[in-house]
């Protein structure tokens, strides 16, 4: 079958690879109908990780089940399914509490809790930017979708970024009527903003510098804040009479940069501490990395950043972090889509064939005008 493999920094290629097979009795094989390129893939694409050459990429996957192992009883051949990016066993201490993103069994790498498809350090699993994908613990992990091809571009956001955006608002402790500040208008930030609107925010501010992304933020009923025009904290403070936001979401990650393009991994956390009121919450879904002496990025090399913890403490704020436990939210988010109350497909800018993956990666990575979210159709 054809699959997108990592070749080295800024290089991916579509190659012929062996089709996946049932390896454990609880596995299923899914024929992929849509698989997305994610901002998280860019950490690998830009050569910031130790991902091995030849790794099949892709953790935002959906499709139709073509085979199940003898231990799979709920899911059947022919079922249309969304595949959460987290691979979870369903029965460890963390899974039992709904923290599938920190499954204690799925990742054999010492010290790493939580596994994913096609990702550096997240276990030996192949990704789904391919024609077929092996899904471990299929009964537990797969979310069933209505048959057919309706809502394909909405449902494809259920494997990662819609639940991740929602999780950002949850980690921030968002309540109805809150004023919410979202930093980052990438796919994750935009879906955090969409989530905040659905959850009844009074006002949502979305900070970025990419004009096309800010325009999308405006289209979904939120207030765009262009950081290249003026300090985003001052802009939000001015518009709120100096009171700021009740809570905030970090949807940028360690590759945060200032308006000149220089990397400043502490910048967004500092801005959130300033803009969120005292006792308010901050949900961090943008990725920060532990110490890795081989990394190319300073934050990832040291595993630490000098952010303003003192002000965070003095303001009595709270913070939640980490990979999103997709299963905790995807059922309800699917139902909101079907009920017409959520439409995360507003993000989709490009629908490409698998063969066009290299172009998709290149343009999405450069944040070329209009390249907000790329879907691949194997
Ligand atoms: P993205 O890189 O397309 O979006 C990031 C956006 O942040 C860009 O539009 C960029 O212009 C903007 N930005 C940069 N510096 C900024 C600053 N100082 N202030 C405000 N905005 C700034 O990626 P994405 O797909 O939206 O993902 C965002 C982050 O979320 C990444 O770190 C990704 O790895 C992470 N992520 C986390 C999870 C999770 O489960 N926690 C899941 C998916 C993605
Ligand atoms: Zn993703």
UniProtKB/TrEMBL annotation:
Q: Which Pfam families match?
A: ADH_N, ADH_zinc_N
Q: Extract the InterPro entries matched here.
A: ADH-like_C, ADH-like_N, ADH_Zn_CS, GroES-like_sf, NAD(P)-bd_dom_sf
Its keywords, alphabetically, are: Metal-binding, NAD, Oxidoreductase, Zinc
Q: Which cofactors go with this protein? A: Zn(2+)
Q: Which domain of life is it from?
A: Bacteria
Alcohol dehydrogenase-like C-terminal domain segment(s): 187-287
Q: Which family does it belong to?
A: Belongs to the zinc-containing alcohol dehydrogenase family.
Please state what the protein is called: Aldehyde dehydrogenase
User: What species is given as this protein's source?
Assistant: Amycolatopsis alba DSM 44262
